User: Fold this.
Amino acid sequence: MNDEILGVRELHLLPLDHLTAENYTAVLTNDTFQLYFINSTIIVVAVTLLTLGVGIPATCSVNRFKYPGHKYTVLGLISSQTLPLVLVFITFFTVMFRLGQVDTHIRLVFAPSTGVLPFAV
Assistant:
């Protein structure tokens, strides 16, 4: 009965006889893929540097210094982590649309940083 359902083929967890590197070489030698990969790498590095560049000094400030409104700052940071990111991104898109920065690299850098920054602090 099982042979009829599955056919006569054998099932393997890893089909070692069919593993080739042809697909990898086809993708990695494609010019558009290389361009997209370089663009993505630049954006990821910029987001990481921006998040760390703002998050590290903010963390030091929140942890070391006691200033007026310190408790409200900590409460704001903690409560911002509970907001759904969709609400933050809708507001962020509205601001970027009004500034004329919708289809730019600046938006691609600031949008993920906005979502990640409360977790970095």
In short: Residues 5 and 17 are 23 Å apart (CA to CA). The chain has one domain: 31-120. The radius of gyration is 24 Å. The chain has a mean pLDDT of 84.
